[in-house]
Amino acid sequence: MASVKLERVRKVYDGGVIAVHEISLDIKDREFVVLVGPSGCGKSTTLRMIAGLEEVTEGSIYIGDLLVNDVAPKDRDIAMVFQNYALYPHMTVYDNMAFGLKLRKFPKSEIQGRVQEAAEILGIEELLTRKPKALSGGQRQRVAVGRAIVRKPKVFLFDEPLSNLDAKLRVQMRTEISKLHQKLGTTMIYVTHDQTEAMTMGDKIVLMKDGHVQQIDAPLSLYNHPVNKFVGGFIGSPSMNFFKGSVVKTRGMRFVEEAGAFELPLPAHQRKAFARSSKRPVIVGIRPEHIALKSSGAKRGKTAPVRASVEVVEPMGNEIYLYCTTQKDREQFVARIGTAKEPAVGKPIDLVFDVTSLHLFDGDTGERIA
Fold first, then answer.
1. Long-range contacts of 177-181 (CB under 8 A, 24+ apart)
2. From CA 152, how far away is CA 141, in angstroms rounded?
3. Inter-residue long-range contacts of 235-240, CB under 8 Å, 24+ positions, other chains counted
4. Residue 344 backbone phi and psi in degrees, to 5
5. What is the pLDDT of residue 278?
6. Burial classification of residue 185, based on how many CB atoms lie within 10 Å of its CB (0-12 exposed, 13-18 middle, 19 or more buried)
7. Across the beta sheet with 254-257, what order do the strands follow?
8. For a tag site, which of 37, 76, 108, 290 has the least CB within 10 Å?
9. What contacts 235, CB < 8 A, 6 or more positions away?
């Protein structure tokens, strides 16, 4: 087992294209870390530099105590699982899993033992004699993971391994990979663009944008305390709602939406940031689950009323998503409510915002206002 450390690592391609800007990251031994972000943010490039498949332009990468910048991929004691499985179609499952060990001239008995052990962990013992064409997508992905397990590496690297699976299989496989981490107790670094995978699988999340790290934190800390508007909007489904406006010192201290569609009183713990400034441009963020129907028994003093129109109703079974617009300026937002009442499309509706759950961001920079 091993830790992984990146010190001010940069990746610049020909033509001066900067894919990764001075990322520094400490991954502890046995930790499960997820690199997440939109396409082109640099997460896969970072993973490939750790694997040795991309050269580091500047900075240092350590696996354990060893500086690996100039170490060949095969000598880094890592195993990588790719998005496209990369199985040999003419080989059986057994031979696919054993192939890397055969190249390293492991004894036949040890190869057999390692393959059998990995197959039992993944529940694919009955598939060992089949060829890849006779397997489903989920089974092929298990074989790809098994091929990595048999090497017993210090670090596992996963590059969007579930992207080619359907929704149900993705849920099943992410659960299995999480269980695998608990069984093996190995350091794992996992790349995905899916924030749900990041939230449910990682001990720690590294959220990236345009080659820069935006925030490194535990999943719930990232969800509850985003450092900027981008993080708040990326993490969570449906995503956080945002409203532009300003904070004014009237009737205490209040946020006024820019078109005057509604006002929200600021809770006491957020007023200090505005003690010396008036009409400061602000973006308020509020998650859909913190918006409720006015008739739902919301607590007085902790909520503020908002008049809106319902554009779309999405029943989800145990809850309903309401896609609404404010009546004055048609600003769009989403509410996540219970199933006791399903509002009619096109009709006005009274909602309440939980003002104790507001997130405040600077209107110019998007940074969180503490």
1. 177/145, 177/201, 178/32, 180/121, 180/122, 180/145, 180/149, 181/32
2. 18
3. 235/195, 235/198, 235/199, 235/207, 236/195, 236/287, 237/195, 237/196, 238/288, 238/321, 238/334, 238/336, 239/334, 240/285, 240/286, 240/287, 240/288, 240/359
4. -85, 140
5. 57
6. exposed
7. 263-265, 254-257, 241-248, 280-286, 359-362
8. 108
9. 195, 198, 199, 207, 222, 223, 226
Residue 62: predicted pLDDT: 97
- For the record, the structure tokens of 306 come out as 């908002």
Read off the tokens for 242.
């945002």
CB count in 10 Å sphere of residue 113: 13
Q: What token pair was written down for 167?
A: 């929704």
Say how many residues make up the chain.
370
Q: Name which of 188, 205, 166 is nearest 81 in CA terms.
A: 188
Per-residue confidence of the chain (370 residues) as pLDDT tens digits? Answer: 689 999 999 999 988 899 999 999 999 999 999 999 999 999 999 999 999 999 999 999 999 999 999 999 989 999 999 888 889 999 999 999 999 899 889 999 999 999 999 999 888 999 999 999 999 888 998 899 999 999 889 999 999 988 888 888 888 888 989 988 998 899 999 999 999 999 999 999 999 999 999 999 999 999 999 999 999 999 999 999 999 999 888 777 888 888 888 889 888 878 877 766 556 789 999 999 999 998 765 555 577 888 899 999 999 989 999 999 987 778 899 999 988 788 889 888 999 999 999 999 999 999 998 7
- Burial bucket for residue 7 (CB in 10 Å: 0-12, 13-18, 19+): middle
Where residue 105 falls (left for φ over 0; alpha for ψ -120 to 50; beta otherwise) is left
Element (H, E) at 95: helix 93-103
What are the distances in angstroms from CA 148 to CA 84, 89, 134, 155?
A: 14, 17, 21, 10
DSSP assignment of 230-294 equals: HHHHHSSSSPPEEEEEEEE-SSSSEEEETTSS-EEEPPHHHHGGGTT-SSEEEEEEE-GGGEEEG
